[in-house]
Amino acid sequence: MTAERRELLSGNEALAHAALACGVHLGTGYPGTPSTEILETLAAIGGKAQWAPNEKVAMEVALGVAYGNGRALVTMKHVGLNVAADPLFSAAYTGVSGALVVAVADDPGMASSQNEQDTRRYAIAAGVPVLEPSDPQEAHDFFFRAVELSEQFGTPVIVRLTTRVSHSKGSVELRPAGPPPRSPHFERNIAARVLIPAYARPAHRRLRQRLKEIAQWNETSGLNLVLTGTSDLGIIASGVAALHAREAAPQTRLLKLGMSYPLPVQTVKEFVRGVKRCVVIEEGDPVIEELCLTHGIPVEGKPEEDRFGELSVSRVRRILNGDCPPPPPPASTRPPQLCPGCPHRMVFEALRDLGCIVAGDIGCYTLGVLPPFEAMDTCTCMGASIGVGLGLRHVLPPDQARRVVSVIGDSTFVHSGLTGIVEMMYNPPPGGHVVLILDNRTTAMTGLQDHPATGRTLSGQPTHELSLEGVCRAIGVEDVTVFEEHSNKESFRALLREKLSQAKPCVIIVRRECLLAMRRRKQESLAAQQERVTCQPSE
Amino acid sequence: MSTERVTNIVVAGVGGQGVLRATDVIAETAFLAGYDVKKTEVHGMSQRGGGVVSDVRFGPRVLSPMVPDGEADFLLVLEPTQLEPNRHRLKPDGVIIGCDRINVASLTHPKTLNVALLGVLSQYLDLSCELWCDALRRCFPPHLYSVNEEAFELGRQADGKACRRE
C-alpha cells in the first residue's frame, strides 16, 4: 500500500483507513450513531478493532495501549464521552507514551441522540487538543496529524466529527502508510502515571505548560487555512460549517480552523485585524466565539437560535445577512417505529395495558414511547432505567410504586445496567422492584453490533458469552425469570402481573433475537457461500 | 472553490426502501465519471421505518454535503407521502421523479423500485450507461446485480431511452 489511491468513502470509513495506515495497534469503542462504522471498517480492512462493554472501559483499554507505547484509537458518540470522561480527564494529566486518539462523533440536530452536547467543551475542560475535520478527506488526513500530535506532545487528542462528516461520503485520496509505529514496550514512569496527589499536582502544571506549547505548535500546524476573499467581512468557521460558509459566501475571506483548541491565538488575531468585522460560524455551542472573546479578539457570534440543530448553507446565508426569521417548522415526516414483528412490541403492549410506570432506556425499544404503545415515562441516558426506577419506587405512594418497571435492552444492560442491579440488591425499595431486560441478542439501534452477551466479537468470532441471568443471580437477585415464549402474550402478562404483585426485587429477561439481526445472519451465511463459488467482479 | 455546475439530487422515502443505496449508486456513478462528489444521509432512529432523506451532489468541486433548500435539480420520491415534506428542497424548475414515472407492477422485485427510479433519473444526466452499470455492480452483491440492472433498464426505458449494450 505505497501508491496513492482515491476512493469514495464516508468520514468514518476514511478515518478507519487512516488508522490502518498509521499502524494503530488497537481500535476500541462502544457503538453509537454516528460513530459506529469507524471500528467496523477498521476490522473489515484488516485492523484490530473490538467493542468494549462501554466507553469508559474502551478509553481505559486504549489508554493502556498508549501507556505501553502503542497507538490506540477509541471511538464513541458524543454522549459516550460522558461515560469515558473520568479516564479522559486523568489521561490528560498522566499523558501517554504512544498515541491516544479519541474519535468522538457529535449529533447536532439529534438525528439519533438524547442531546446535542458539544464535545469541544470536553476538550477544553480536560485540556486535550481537538481537531475538527470538515469532510471525509480531512477525517482521513487529520487522523495522521492527530497521531503525530499525540506522540509529539504525549497527549490524548480528540478528533471531533459530526453527523455530516461521519455519514457523508466524498472522494478521498488515501495517503500511503506512514513510517511504522514504535514497538509497544513498557517503560516505568511512576511519577507520571500514578495520580496520587503528590504526583498529580506537578502533573497539572505540566498539562497547562503542554497546552501552551501545543497552542504555539498550532500557529504553524497547517491545520488552519485562510481562504481568500474580500475584507469587509471575515468568517471564522470549523468542521462542516466551514464548507457551508464557503458555499454561502464564496467571495468572503474565511479562516477555517482545523484545530480549534488550543486556539492559534496569533493566527486568529491577525485574521481578524485584516477584516472590517468578523463572524464566527460553528455548529453547536459558541466555543470558538467564546475562546476568541476570552483572548480579547473582537468577533460576532451566531444568533442564539442557531445554537440549535444542524447548520446548513441556507442557515449560514441567513446568519450572514443578519436576518433572524423564526426557523421553519420541521417538515412533518413519518416518525420511526418498532419494526413489524419486533419482539419488543408484545412487551410494550403489556406495559401499556397493565398501566405500568416505565423507567425506560436507550435503544430501539425507546420507540415504545410512541403510539400505539406510549408505554415509557422516562428515558435519560444509558443505564438510567434501573436507578430511576428504584428512585421512583422509593418515594411514590404504594399504589403507584408497585406499578414501576425498569426496562433496559441487553447491550445497554451490559454497558451500564449492572451497577443498577447491585444498587437494587444493596438498597432494595420496600415494595421490591421489577427489571425487564429486553434481550434481542444485538445492539439493534446502532446497526446490529455484537456485545459481550452475544458471545461474538466485533468481527463475528466466537468468544466468552456473558450470561445475563447468571450475572443477575451472581449479584444476588434470587428471582430471575427468562421468558422465551414470544408468541404467548397472555403468559407474559400473567408473569408480569405476578412479579408486580410480589414485594421483592426481581429480573425478567425477555429473550428473542431481533428479526433484522436474524435476517442479517442468514444473508451473511448466504453471501459467504456465494463467495466460495463466484468470482469477484473486476474493478 | 467554485460551486458552479454542481448537480443536486435529493432522494426521499421511508426506512427499508433503499434510499441510501440509491444515493450510493448515484455517488458512485459520478465518482467513476471523475467528478467531485459528496453525499449525505442520516442513520439511526430514522431507519426504523421513519422518513429517510439522502442528498447527493456532484460537479467540478462540491463544498457542503447537503443540498441547500430550494436548490435540488432532482427530487426522487420512493414513497408518495414523502413528497410534500421534501418539496421545498426542489428548485423552481426542478424535476420530481416519483413512482408514477414507471410501471411499478412490471418490476420483478418491488425492492428494486429505488434502482428503477435511478433509471429514470439517468435520462437527465450526462453519465454513461456503462458507468451506471459499473456503479450498480459495486453497490450490490453479485447475486442481486441482475435484478437491479433489469430495474434500471425499466426506468431508463420509461421514456423510451434504452441502455445500449455492447
- Number of E-type strands of chain B: 5
CATH homologous superfamily descriptor of chain B: Pyruvate-ferredoxin oxidoreductase, PFOR, domain III
Weakly predicted, low-confidence segments of chain A: 535-539
CATH architecture of the largest domain in chain A: 3-Layer(aba) Sandwich
Mean pLDDT across the residues of chain A is 94
Share of β-strand residues of chain B: 15-25%
> Could you tell me the mean pLDDT of chain B?
89
Number of helices of chain B: 5
Determine the N-to-C terminus distance of chain A. 17 Å
**Multimerization state:** heterodimer
The H/E string of chain B reads EHEEEHEHHH
Keywords:
A: 539 residues; alpha/beta; Rossmann fold; 3 domains; 22 helices; 41% helix; 18% strand; globular; disordered C terminus; B: 166 residues; Pyruvate-ferredoxin Oxidoreductase, domain 3; 5-stranded mixed beta sheet
Secondary structure: elements and pairs:
The complex is a heterodimer of chains A (539) and B (166).
Chain A: E1 5-10, H1 11-21, E2 26-29, H2 37-44, E3 49-51, H3 55-67, E4 71-77, H4 80-83, H5 85-94, E5 99-106, H6 119-126, E6 130-131, H7 136-153, E7 156-162, H8 163-166, E8 168-174, H9 190-193, H10 197-219, E9 225-227, E10 230-238, H11 239-248, E11 252-257, E12 259-261, H12 265-273, E13 277-281, H13 287-294, H14 313-321, H15 344-353, E14 357-359, H16 384-395, H17 398-401, E15 404-409, H18 410-416, H19 418-426, E16 433-439, H20 468-475, E17 479-483, H21 489-501, E18 505-511, H22 515-533
Parallel strand pairs in A: 2-3, 2-4, 4-5, 5-7, 6-7, 10-11, 10-13, 14-15, 15-16, 16-18, 17-18
Antiparallel strand pairs in A: 1-8, 6-12, 9-11
Helix pairs in contact in A: 1-2, 1-7, 3-5, 11-14, 16-19
Chain B: E1 7-14, H1 19-32, E2 36-41, E3 51-59, E4 72-77, H2 83-86, E5 90-98, H3 113-122, H4 129-139, H5 142-157
